[in-house]
Specification:
The chain has helices spanning 5-19, 74-83, 190-201, 206-213, 243-292, 295-308, 340-384, 387-399, 436-446, 474-486; strands at residues 23-31, 34-41, 44-53, 56-62, 87-93, 99-107, 113-121, 128-133, 138-141, 218-221, 226-227, 239-242, 318-323, 328-333, 420-423, 429-432, 452-456, 464-466, 496-502, 506-508, 517-519, 523-527. A hairpin with a 2-residue loop joins β2 (34-41) and β3 (44-53). The protein is an alpha+beta fold. The two termini are 31 Å apart. Strands 15-16-18-17-19-22 form a 6-stranded antiparallel beta sheet, sandwiched between helices. The protein has a 5-stranded antiparallel beta sheet with strand order 5-6-7-8-9, covered by helices on one side. The chain has 4 domains: 5-141, ibrinogen binding protein from staphylococcus aureus fold; 181-237, no CATH class; 290-373, no CATH class; 420-527, no CATH class.
């Protein structure tokens, strides 16, 4: 991320202009590593966000309404005791690195003013939040580091800056393009180095580029990064916002994406694991079915013994009997402990057992195939799901017993699972289920019996319903078929068959698995899927 040393320098300057003299009203913690300082002074009221996540640390002002759901812990109580009610005297960067210090004045219980420092270390894996006295004695910190490390960050120790690398101030004009700029100057992230190198090759001066950063009050946002200057080396146009709103919005989106990725990864692992398990089970059952299909052989052995050799004595572990009808000799392995008639009875029993198991195996294979298709469909749905839809998939898996149901303090029950809505070129509304709960709700509750149902053939995919009761134009059919093909496992294939029929011809699958259906009659259209608009 681009919250590098140069950005810290500029953001610190902008913050100092805004929050110097502010009263710290309340301090909240919104996650393990995210804190909110509620600030105000005359004609100004805002929140200071301090995030010290290892891979996404930043600080900014924000008017966003955060959900405060964490109980107060020891360190939060320390912050509140020593800093709430204090006045911010200054905020400044330390050692040209990603370390910021806030100087705060607060009266103690006797009315004596004391100076406290809040040191904010935004340094990658070693992020920390440290409260010290005026003489830099540490009161407490979020992450404690014992004496076995190269720094001691513990209550009672003296706060010292991390060891500083031998780097120069980037306002210096002396640089060597043959080595990394990150290895020469403070403040450079990887993406900023790419941009600076591009501009240097275009004839711009390093001093001018750095001054542009240190005078900017705008943020230029790209799909996966941002900075205080536009990245000319990228072909995409940035989204431009005021520095505080831009930083806040970027990290809110980023954290939402990370949480979604974490949630989807967890669910995807469950779906992959179950899909693989049932695929293995299908293979094993089919092997057993192949063996069970040989059951007629054992009946044939019994028939031969009764027809041609019922009274022969067993002299060996096998016997050769001539099949007069087929005109061939048949070698039969025997159990020497029993007579020929008893061996024949054992063959008949084995035949009957295999015949019965064949029916059971066929049923089990069908069940396993349904489970496999169900989890293959889930894999597609998880990849396309938003945060709310991932939660619905989680509820679905919990209801089926695949994961442990979470006990929620909020008793509000979700009763409607609204699908996504598209509009065909001719203006007809089309609904697409993005998970099995939405599929069921769409097909069996929302859809009318004389509307049209689309589903990709032979692949897991979304239910698509065209909300029209009249004949569909070819354009609408192709549009709906494209939605069904795109939101399916066959998305990356070509010439995909899509079945369509009236909703009245769609029935729930006998397995009663969410999202699985059977079609009585249907037509088929072939489509090359493209991303829908």
């Amino acid at each position: 991320m681009s919250f590098d040393g140069l950005m810290v320098r500029r953001i610190t300057q902008l913050l100092d202009n805004k929050i110097n003299g502010c009263y710290i009203n309340r301090i909240f913690q919104i996650s393990n590593n995210d804190f909110i300082f509620s600030l105000y002074k005359k004609d100004f009221k805002d929140k200071l966000v301090i995030s010290i996540n290892n891979n996404a640390s930043y600080l900014s002002l924000s008017s966003y309404q955060y959900n405060i759901h964490l109980d107060a812990n020891h360190f939060l109580n320390v912050l509140r005791h020593h800093l709430e009610g204090g006045i911010i005297l200054s905020i400044y960067q330390l050692s040209l690195d990603r370390i910021v210090s806030i100087k705060i004045s607060k009266e103690d219980e006797l009315g004596v003013k004391e100076i406290k420092h809040l040191h904010i270390e935004l340094t990658g894996k070693m992020t920390n939040l440290i409260v010290t006295k005026e003489d830099e004695t540490i009161i407490d910190c979020l992450h404690r580091l014992g004496p076995i490390t190269n720094r001691t960050i513990m209550p009672g120790a003296i706060y010292h800056l991390p060891p500083a690398p031998n780097l120069k101030d980037p306002l210096s004009e002396e640089y060597n393009l043959n080595t990394d700029l990150q290895g020469q100057f403070f403040g450079f992230s990887k993406n900023l180095e790419k941009e600076v190198r591009y501009r240097l090759n275009e004839g711009e001066a390093l001093n001018d580029i750095v001054k542009e950063i240190l005078s900017s009050d705008k943020v230029y946002i790209y799909p996966s990064d941002y900075h205080l200057i536009p990245f000319k080396h990228l072909s995409k146009d940035p989204l431009i916002k005021d520095w505080d709103k831009g930083i806040t919005d970027f990290y809110l989106d980023y954290q939402t994406t990370i949480r979604k990725q974490e949630a989807s990864k967890e669910l995807l692992n469950i779906a992959k694991k179950e899909s693989k398990k049932y695929l293995t089970k299908i293979g094993r059952l089919e092997d057993e079915l192949t063996k069970a299909s040989d059951s007629d052989t054992y009946r044939y052995y019994g028939d031969l013994i009764y027809a041609y050799a019922p009274n022969l004595a067993i002299k060996d572990k096998e016997i050769v009997i001539k099949d007069e009808e087929k005109g061939k000799d048949v070698l039969i392995s025997l159990d020497e402990r029993y007579s020929l008639k008893d061996n024949a009875q054992k063959f008949y029993k084995k035949y009957q057992k295999l015949r019965n198991s064949k029916n059971i195996l066929e049923e089990q294979i069908e069940i396993a195939k349904n489970e496999y298709e169900y989890f293959e469909l889930l894999k597609v749905q998880i990849q396309d799901a938003n945060k709310e839809e991932l939660e619905q998939i989680k509820q679905e898996l919990a209801s089926l017993g695949y994961i442990k149901a979470q006990i929620r303090s909020n008793k509000k029950k979700v009763t409607k699972y609204l699908p996504h809505t598209y509009t065909s070129p001719s203006g007809i509304q089309i609904s697409v289920g993005m998970n099995n709960l939405q599929n069921d709700y769409l097909t069996h509750t929302i859809a009318k019996y004389n509307e049209y149902f689309f589903h990709v053939k032979d692949y897991p995919g979304s239910h698509v319903v065209v909300h029209s009761t009249g004949p569909l134009s070819e354009e609408t059919i192709r549009y709906a078929a494209n939605l069904a093909a795109y939101f399916s496992k066959a998305r990356l294939s070509s010439t995909i068959p899509v079945n369509y029929t009236l909703v009245k011809n769609v029935k729930k699958h006998p397995s009663n698995k969410p999202g699985l259906v059977l079609l009585k009659t249907y037509k088929t259209i072939y489509i090359d899927p493209i991303e829908p608009k």
